[in-house]
Design brief:
The protein is α+β, with helices and mostly antiparallel strands. It is built from four helices and eleven strands; from the N terminus they run αββββββββββαααβ. The chain has a domain at 64-191: Sandwich (Jelly Rolls). Bound molecules: manganese (II) ion.
Length: 235
């Protein structure tokens, strides 16, 4: 084998390896709800069957109202410590969303209102500002780029994306109320509100553990654990 042929061969091998890695990694990173096996599967909440999602209502009994929700334009009360309210429009409100792999939410913010740091283990989020001025951002994992904060000031008409599983927040920096929608790529994105989970767990995490983790004394941790970690969301 002369050197030109050898070079061509190794180039081919490298190409095959690269292509294989690309295929394997695309399989690994694809994450979404399971695919549909039928046109729809309107949730039947009366069933005692436990499946991944909800069992399907008899298709002969399905009506247009199973795919309908009205009132997302209505302002929600932000009268809580956070000054924010998340109305999740998922399968509980639109049963026809079951198995479709998407849901949406409306978020209201009082001036100074905060949707606190949280993450969704099973979905990325497309966040759209309908009204007002917000500061929103997300933080990356402990990777090569470290815990980088990607954040922007957003106004009406702006869209920001929160990648799946990353901690993110929105804060109303305007003098008026703000409203946004959040669309999720799962019917069950999951919601982990960081302060609630860390300081408001039941039973509490031993204070000595959180004291070490947060570089605080146990008295401060115990004080934090006694606070009312408000739930600012409803399904
Ligand atoms: Mn979110």
């Amino acid at each position: 084998m002369n050197s030109t042929r050898r070079a061509k061969m190794s180039a081919k091998i490298i190409l095959i390896i690269a292509a294989s890695i690309a295929v394997i990694s695309s399989i690994c990173v694809s994450s979404s709800d399971p695919g549909l096996l039928q046109d729809f599967c309107v949730a039947d909440f009366t069933s005692n069957v436990f499946v991944n999602g909800f069992p399907c209502k008899d298709p002969l009994l399905v009506t247009s109202d199973d795919f309908f929700y009205s009132g997302i334009d209505q302002p929600r009360s932000t009268d809580n410590q956070l000054g924010s309210n998340i109305t999740i429009v998922g399968v509980n409100r639109i049963r026809g969303l079951n198995t479709l792999g998407i849901i949406i939410a409306r978020i209201d913010y009082a001036p100074g209102g905060l949707n606190p740091p949280h993450y969704h283990p099973r979905a990325s989020e497309v966040f759209t500002v309908i009204e007002g001025n917000l500061f929103a951002g997300f933080i990356t994992t402990n990777s090569d780029i470290g815990n980088t904060l990607y954040a922007k000031k957003l106004q009406k008409g702006d869209i920001f994306v929160f990648p799946q599983g990353l901690i993110h927040f929105q804060f109303n920096i305007g003098s008026k109320r703000a409203v946004a929608t959040a669309a999720f790529g799962s019917q069950s994105p999951g919601l982990m509100t960081v302060p609630n989970a860390v300081f408001g767990s039941n039973p509490p995490v031993p204070a000595v553990i959180l004291a070490k983790a947060f570089q605080l004394n146990t008295t401060t941790i115990e004080w934090l654990q006694q606070q009312n970690w408000v739930k600012n969301f409803n399904y």
